[in-house]
Amino acid sequence: MKKKIKVHLREEGYFIYTGYPLKDIGRLFNKRYGRKILVLSDNKVFPLYGKVVKDSIIEAGKEVIEVIVPPGERQKSLGSAFNILKKCAENNMNRDDTILTLGGGVISDLGGFVASIYMRGINFVAVPTTLLAQVDAAIGGKTGVNLPFGKNLVGSFYQPSFVYMDYSTLSTLPEREMKQGLAEIIKYGIIKSKKIFNLFKNTKTGEIKKHLPFLIEESVRIKKGVVEKDEKEKKGLREILNFGHTLGHAIEISRLSRFSHGECVSLGMAGETYISWRIGLCSEEVYRTVKNILKQHGLFYNFSSIAVDNKMFDYLKYDKKVRQGNIRFVLVKDIGRVESVVVKQEDVKKLIKEMIKDEKDG
Ligand SMILES: NC(=O)c1ccc[n+]([C@@H]2O[C@H](COP(=O)([O-])OP(=O)(O)OC[C@H]3O[C@@H](n4cnc5c(N)ncnc54)[C@H](O)[C@@H]3O)[C@@H](O)[C@H]2O)c1
Ligand SMILES: [Zn+2]
């Protein structure tokens, strides 16, 4: 079902269109978006959805400039950003014109970043085509690229003019990508929505996709609610979105991309819920339920499966939230309620080792 969700910000707000068909996107391109629309996409997504988007924009009387890059995280670089900036300049795009990103989070992070710096900022429209981008990356105004030293080290807060999502684009998404999005949706359930969580609990393996429109809408509302209160991440309110991500990131970097972000976050959520239970913040039942849900929907939940080594604990040290051996986590009090808690690094290590033992004992 079509829904138009308003994001209220201090300056100008904008709309997120969920459940709208790509073929109608051109209708939104009024005078405000200039004459030239640079469509940035990757060469997996563009052959699938590029033409319908392009035709619709051309029908609205605009000129389309296509920039198609290879898929993958490597495109989030200053080199790619430079190439796109060059395209903008070569095509004499001016301050009224627009960059539209058609693709996953890599494309919206990269294109949004370029839109934020070309001529000190031109219009940016995001058309996310992965579940992860629809519920996370394309919502919230963070854009950026990586440096060889680390992820997202260069970027800006830059809000789009609108976000437009057609659920049918998810029909071609590979299963592994789908699961990355599901992990983030379960995260929203645990931090803020019993409704989401219970839906996962009461839905059989493989059938959750039927509920995607509801789940996406609900997730978008949760993320936009957090962003509205703390647009530039200055008040610490955005922190709750990091649930599962503190351990998750440590696993992600120590495994050096053997696992996807979503897989690491799933495991991170299991581990952080275990810690929550063991320090007395939530009941054992909450932990068992979280773990069962991850299992039920084919997500990672088991530390024994990844052969944890000390490297992972070392990487925890590099987290921005670590001070003198203390790690700040977002932990679970109950489903839908989380709290920021400081845990000693050595306790984390001890507890995760106990969790592994607990897994082995059944
Ligand atoms: N800005 C933010 O707030 C934010 C939040 C979370 C993640 N991110 C960033 O998002 C990126 C990950 O996003 P992602 O998971 O969407 O990755 P992605 O953009 O790499 O897309 C994943 C893969 O799916 C393919 N694909 C995309 N849409 C498809 C479709 N409809 N059908 C078939 N294939 C399709 C892509 O070609 C790619 O190979 C990371 O760089 C991460 O840092 C940003
Ligand atoms: Zn994430």
Helix content: 40-55%
> Pairing-aware structural class of the strands and helices?
alpha/beta
| C-alpha Rg (nearest Å) | 21 Å
Query: Strands of the biggest beta sheet: in what spatial order?
Result: 1-2-9-6-5-3-4
Question: Could you explain how this protein is built, in words?
Answer:
Helix content is 43%, strand content 20%. It has helices at residues 46-59, 78-90, 105-117, 131-137, 175-192, 194-201, 212-229, 245-254, 261-278, 284-296, 310-316, 345-360, and strands at residues 3-7, 14-18, 36-42, 63-69, 98-103, 123-128, 142-147, 150-157, 162-165, 322-323, 326-334, 337-344. α4 (131-137) packs parallel to α5 and α9 (261-278) runs antiparallel to α10. The protein is globular, with a radius of gyration of 21 Å. It starts with a strand and ends with a helix. The mean pLDDT is 94. The protein binds nicotinamide-adenine-dinucleotide (NAD) and zinc ion. Nicotinamide-adenine-dinucleotide (NAD) binds at residues 42, 44-45, 48, 71-73, 76, 103-107, 109, 129-130, 132-133, 136-137, 140, 142, 152, 169, 172-173, 177, 180.
List key phrases describing it:
362 residues, alpha/beta, Rossmann fold, Dehydroquinate synthase-like, alpha domain, 2 domains, seven-stranded mixed sheet, three-stranded antiparallel sheet, 12 helices, binds nicotinamide-adenine-dinucleotide, binds zinc ion
Helix and strand arrangement:
Elements lengths: L2 E5 L6 E5 L17 E7 L3 H14 L3 E7 L8 H13 L7 E6 L1 H13 L5 E6 L2 H7 L4 E6 L2 E8 L4 E4 L9 H18 L1 H8 L10 H18 L15 H10 L6 H18 L5 H13 L13 H7 L5 E2 L2 E9 L2 E8 H16 L2
Parallel strand pairs: 2-9, 3-4, 3-5, 5-6, 6-9
Antiparallel strand pairs: 1-2, 7-8, 10-11, 11-12
The structure holds nicotinamide-adenine-dinucleotide and zinc ion (ZN).
